[in-house]
């Protein structure tokens, strides 16, 4: 593990999460890099901005990676995705199908929609998961920043509990 590079790209993902919060949507960001640490794509949650429930940060980054993802699959290149939160089941599926070989995130999401570890532990895609290196919560200070963003999100008008209150 290259702590300096991991930190650099997690900080970049965190900036994407901050942009998402400013745009009044879930504060989650993601970054994809190749095996030479070249930035391939950035993404952030755009669920509310695009009114698209599939517009999660990891999916946004994978979409933004475009042709590079296909080339990596064909050539067997090893991409890393950095996310500020444990990927949900949908994003986990996207990561598996994109053949991303390394996943690093800032904050576990055991109580929310975090699904990466749950799906991995189910052994359903055991062979695929064995090919992926996982690093979770490597930097306490960055994890704390993501927790702060998530806490701010709870006060946002688009936070689901606040939306439900406004309809009642």
TrEMBL record:
Q: Which GO terms describe its molecular function?
A: tRNA-specific adenosine-34 deaminase activity; zinc ion binding
Question: Which controlled-vocabulary keywords does the entry list?
Answer: Metal-binding, Zinc
List the InterPro entries: APOBEC/CMP_deaminase_Zn-bd, CMP_dCMP_dom, Cytidine_deaminase-like
Pfam family of this protein, just one?
dCMP_cyt_deam_1
Where does the CMP/dCMP-type deaminase domain start and stop, copy by copy?
A: 4-116
Query: Which protein are we looking at?
Result: Nucleoside deaminase
- GO terms for biological process? tRNA wobble adenosine to inosine editing
Q: Which Gene3D superfamilies match?
A: Cytidine Deaminase, domain 2
Which organism is this protein's natural source?
Answer: Heyndrickxia sporothermodurans
Q: Which domain of life is it from?
A: Bacteria
């Amino acid at each position: 593990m290259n702590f300096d590079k991991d930190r650099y790209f997690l900080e970049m993902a965190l900036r994407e999460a901050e942009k998402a919060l400013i745009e009044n949507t879930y504060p989650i960001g993601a970054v994809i890099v190749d095996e030479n640490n070249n930035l391939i794509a950035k993404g952030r949650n755009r669920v509310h901005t695009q009114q698209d429930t599939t517009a999660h940060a990891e999916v946004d980054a994978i979409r933004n990676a475009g042709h590079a993802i296909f080339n990596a699959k064909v050539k067997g290149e090893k991409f890393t995705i950095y996310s500020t939160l444990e990927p949900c089941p949908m994003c986990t599926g996207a990561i598996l199908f994109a053949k991303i070989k390394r996943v690093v995130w800032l904050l576990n999401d055991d109580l929310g929609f975090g699904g990466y570890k749950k799906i991995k532990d189910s052994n359903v895609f055991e062979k695929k998961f064995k090919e992926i290196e996982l690093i979770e919560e490597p930097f306490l200070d960055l994890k704390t920043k993501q927790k702060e963003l998530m806490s701010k999100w709870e006060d946002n008008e688009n936070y689901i509990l606040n939306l439900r209150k406004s309809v009642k």
